[in-house]
Amino acid sequence: MLTMHNVGKIYQTDSVQTHALRDFSLTVNEGEFIAVTGPSGSGKTTFLNIAGLLEPFTSGQYTLDGIDIGGLSDNQRADIRNQKIGYIFQGFNLIPDLNIYENVEVPLRYRGVPAKERKVRILECLEQVGLASRARHLPQQLSGGQQQRVAIARALAGKPRFLLADEPTGNLDTLMARQVMELLEEINQNGATIVMVTHDPELARRAPRNIQVVDGELADLTFYQGKPATPASAPEKSAHESVVGG
Amino acid sequence: MFLHYIDLSIRSIKSTPVISVLMVFAIAIGIGLTMTSLSVFHMMSMDPIPHKSQAIHFPQLNIMDEGGEWHTDDNIPYQLTYQDAINLYNADADFPRSPSFRSGFSVHLNTPDVKPTMEPARLVYQEFFSIFERPFIFGAPWSKEEQQSKPYVVVISESINNRLFNGQNSVGKSIYLDNKSYRIVGVVEDWDHHIKYYDLNNGAFNSPEKLYVPFSIAPLEEIGTWGNTNGWKHETLNGYQSLLQSELVWVQFWVQLNTAAEKEAFSALIMAYMEDQQSKGRFNRDNLQYALRNVTQWLKYNQVVSEDNRILVGLSFMFLLVCVANILGLLLAKFLKRAPEVGVRRALGASKKHIFAQHIVEVSVIGLAGGILGIVIAQLGLWGVRTTNRYYEALATMDVSLLLAAPTIALMASFIAGLYPAWLVCRTQPAIYLKSQ
User: Which CDD domains match (chain A) (predicted)?
Assistant: First the structure.
């Protein structure tokens, strides 16, 4: 599904070069649910942005669904984002002027989905996150948890095969965080590949596979085989071996 | 998608009402002023008789002796002498033509009920009506015979007919012009022209005459012109008859020449006439000189649209440019504030083209609103011109083409203003804003 090989990302200012990612290599298979952890500023979000085609990388090779991303134009990347990738953000990032229905509709409009089909899909997704009755509400009329569920519905509306979540529960209380996590697990069970960045070790443990990013490098990689486990019990592998081994 | 963008634009305008209203007003004021000056310029420069302007011609003769100077570009007097006008009219040729000059009469019915009013009149021969296609409501022009032997006939305008005869058919009735009774032979529609192209002597934008009497009345009643009379040499005039025989120029002359061949034939006629006159002691010059201009050429020759008018239009467009610059600044502020939302849209699959189109449509909606408001402001401006200067009354109007041009110019102006902000916002890197929102 996703293969990064020696991907590097350097942020350059006049006087400073910052290596956000160094020789980052990773393979994510179809249907996986991966939690990405690491300290603040380690490069988790940069990895997620590159994986989600939201920013270009400086070196290395990245293929998504067999497509070499490095050679794509801005418009081609926008197309792939629209067709294959769904995003869930920590801050929900709903458009305040649009109601819930219209927010979920945004990616479908850019995809050119006909109005009738849009309606069916939107209501289906809102139903899935339990917010069909709030379709005409504005984002600010909903709680944080509800807004995040709308964001998930928006990410799902385009039926993406690849879902990227950046701290999806970061702004939610424990109960709501659990509900959102359960929703993501359900989505994963339905076939979507999920890569989730989180600071919460408990949430990370619920993901079948964990990777840790430190100083822009893949530092640790742990398998939990779908059940809660301590990091210490996971098999020890080097980052590169893990990538190759999947 | 276009309708969706319009919907988004209206929402955006509603969500930022102050800045949006400022932009609409900026473009409206710019369009209002531009359209006011452009309307006047457009009316001034439009062809007054488009289907015939190439056929109707004004002949000019250089009557001056060698060394004489006139203030025209080609050194030929603007008007003709009475004798030349009469001779050219009486020449043996089939081209419809007529001498003409503006005068005026006290008009009354010789009854105490109706107060006399001073009305401008035009002295013409019957061909004038066909050359300039004056539509008759009642009756017809006087006949050739009438203008030669029974010239006390008159064609009145619709407004005079309405005032004196309540709009009824007045043909056959009499009215008094000064102290003489004239029989009404026809009633013509009021001449609703923007440019008084058939007589530029009293001002190119003056009002039309309301009465037409035969040119042959002039010597009988010794009717003087209300226009300019100019001379090129010292002459002592002893009465009206000496004016008619003088070298003073005060008569206009129009001839209809439908083809190049006809123009050539009439040119030959003029040349033959001048040679004949030269043999009789006039036109003492080495090279006989004349001009034969059609209506379009005549208006240009007389500089009906002055340089001042062009400068005014240029200045108003520069003002519009200042408005565009202001709108550009406001749009930059508005669009860049929206960069986080654009980041989300980009992340969700919007291409740069989508984002650019969305913002350009929003700018166009603002431009269109400004254009429509600009028409209202332009109408107020034109009303101001009309009420403060009656001379420009006929010009200070906006025709359909300019009504359509106003929103088009507004759209173009707003498009230009929005181009850079829309381009800038469509280059938003989504990743920058997604985390920070």
Answer: ABC_MJ0796_LolCDE_FtsE
